[in-house]
Amino acid sequence: MERTRIAVAGASGLIGSALVRSLTADGHEVVRLVRRAAAGPDEVCWDPEGQYVDAAGLAGCTAVVDLAGAGIGDRRWTAAYKRRLRDSRVLGTAALAEAVAALPEPPRVFVSGSAIGIYGDTGDRVVDEQAPPGDGFLPSLCVEWEEAAAPAQEAGVRTVFVRTGLVVARGGGAWGRLFPLFRAGLGGRLGDGRQYWSYIALHDEVAAIRHLIDGENLSGPFNLTAPEPLTNREITAAMARVLHRPAPFPVPAPVLRAVLGELAGDVLGSQRVVPKRLLESGFRFALAGIDEAIRAA
Fold this sequence. Notes:
This protein is an alpha/beta fold and about 300 residues long. It is about 40% helix and about 20% strand. The protein is built from 11 helices and 14 strands. This is Epimerase.
């Protein structure tokens, strides 16, 4: 990848911060979108829910990456928080896509965040990018999220949707909650443990995003998951094995539903998602196995 100027929304999040570190380490100029007045030339002011972007700050960017959005697992899904989950993604992406489309010289690529939640519960069925959206809140949210990038696509900007799986990382997401439990010897399978989890190491997530930024002919949806999804039971065993802790306590489904509410459906649900288009594009995973992904985290 040539050294370029790249704008990143969601730069303080789990994936965004890792992407910024990777880009800056290789000498790229990174512009962060911030929800306050810009403090310098490396920041751009924006208000996702208010659909405002200081588009002048995006001038000269060869790529714009949108990874912003309220945390899916941060709180119970009350009606108010579901609105925040939607607005922080759909309204923010629409504003950024419109700003990109209006630039006299648009960037070469617009990378828009998405998630494998778009497929819903797939059970044992293997799904790739050609699978249709599922039913429920998360699939409908992801569909709206991707549709919000239409202004950039219509302006002729190469647009990529990164449908991210469960990121194996210590600093946040589902694994950010799992590591402390397993270190304390309190980890265990969730429900019956037969549901598939489509995971990806944080290192590979960042590498895949950079691969898609650099791929001149790559556009549309890409699943960012390891090539072989595993069941929750298999992942629980790997966590216990790598961390040298027992995992004797399965968490019953009714308990999860009582604690997590509607989110429990996604934790207990099964998604056997494979990165068909990513592999066909020539991407190679550095940490495809679950043991090495956990060790790296």
